[in-house]
Here is the input.
Amino acid sequence: MKRIAASLTAAVLTVAAALPMMTGSTRMEYAVTGSTLNSLGSYLLGDGSLEYGKGDINRDGSIDCFDLVLGRKYVTEYSDKVPEGMWVGTGDNGVRLFWFSGGAGYIFGASAAQVTDFTASVTDSRFTLTTGGTSAMADIVWNSADSFSLHWDDYGLEAFSPAGAQLMPSAELTGEYITSGDTGQRSWKFSGYTGSCDGRGFFWLPEEGGIKLCWCGSTEYGDIEHIALARTDRHHFTLTYEDGRRESFTRREITTVDGITYVNGILIANKTYALPSTYNPGGLTSETLAAFNEMKAAAYAEKGLSLTVCSGFRSYSYQATLYNNYVARDGKAKADTYSARPGHSEHQTGLAADINYAGDWFNTTPEAAWLAANCWKYGFIIRYPQGKQDITGYKYESWHVRYLGRELAKMVYDSGLTLEEYLGIDSSYKY
Ligand SMILES: [Zn+2]
Here is the structure.
């Protein structure tokens, strides 16, 4: 967090940047407008004078036609440009966040948790911001395509830099999260630097040593909380509040496409989420098969172990037959502990496979030990680990692997969590 705060300060202090296509290091100190150019033109023709300090646009110590050329470029590119997107403004008003979108937007105040909407326009480098029928005006001075300042007519200078650069960690947080920890379970929606939690809006801003979480229109937790953010991986992070409370965040975006459930884009079939009877990839997906073959070769090369798929893809109707036979033999309650109801089997995804032997006998084999230690390297996880039956819905299956792709499999393996825990979902029949 220190780095972010430092980069914010640095960005504000060193606004010096060259305009695109302009030579030398040029920092605009004042708005270059059409009338600036007219005055400069007249001055160069020996007709008229310049306001003190204006004219040396390229700041090379002399006022000449190069200043006119540079000024003209500036006017063409910037004199009517309205900012777009999220910007951090720093100046006499403290730190404020501005969101510009098509000539309208919002100001998020940092010292008070308030959001003010406005309309904005720029004409000949004059910036007009209107809110609640009142207008404030400023000269807008662009120092580069991603840096500008507002010289407010009534209260000084405000320097702007893109919020994305300073707030990178929060920008990565876009999406839906559920939390656990000292604050209990809450659901959060992040959209870059703003979002909502259980229906209350918030935004956040960087500060020295951490982040400020500013609640909009709520005093339940106080308007502003100073927090430290620690990332675990792409899907997880932790906030530690100033009073010591900790909240763990798990990204969980559940979407359904044609009856198929995806959590964070990952196809899920478990006791909670069923596949439609029509879902049929026709076998193990080619990616799963290729990864398995690579894993098989590695197990043989490393330890002389032989891995085979004893059960890969299973269709909905095949699973229905299987399950109904188990129910007839052992009863529904028992069958549910080891066999999936049709639609709920991961084998229907084409992404899961039973290796060598689907039974407890396999647990103590060197093949099982090798799989547990190495399958993540090839994009697989042991889907139903020991002692997690309450979470996965299945007893320990050392032989059942699920393909997730290398990156995700490594993250899940490193987390030590089941896939359900990693994604913040449950696995239990609702019928
Ligand atoms: Zn299986």
Observations:
- DSSP finds twelve helices and 23 strands in the chain.
- The domain at 2-78 is CATH 1.10.1330.10 (Type 1 dockerin domain).
- The chain has three domains: 2-78, 168-251, 257-423.
- Confidence is low (pLDDT under 50) at residues 1-25.
